[in-house]
Amino acid sequence: MGALAKTYAFSAGTPIVAAQVNDNFDDVVDWATGTPTLSTSGSATTISGTLSVSELATFSDQIYLNGSNQELVYEGSTSDAYETFLRARDATADRLIYLPDAAGTVSLAGDGNASDIISNSVFN
Known about the structure:
This protein is largely without helices or strands. Helices cover 13% and strands 5% of the residues. The chain has one helix spanning 18-33, and strands spanning 72-74, 84-86. The chain has a two-stranded antiparallel sheet with strand order 1-2. The longest helix has 16 residues, at 18-33. The chain starts with 17 loop residues before the first helix and ends in a 38-residue tail after the last strand.
């Protein structure tokens, strides 16, 4: 369970409204039971620092990477000094890259498996 980061400032003599106490209690219960809502639909939640997810993360829309170090990093089943990085080059236009709906291995140009490389003309 993560830390609950709620801050309320009350001045001496300020009445504390029961609804605020109830909202705080609801937030604490949500965090304790593992069902917190970080923001409402259409809103943005900003997390500064590192977000660590140790179980399944489900995304229902696009994942947008922004910044100078945009890549997906795969550690693999053994946590060691070696990772696989998936990185796109600086785009000069919007691009779509389709992965085939098939099982198999993706070949890379120059990897010695020229017979497995699909010509770009297939997609034109």
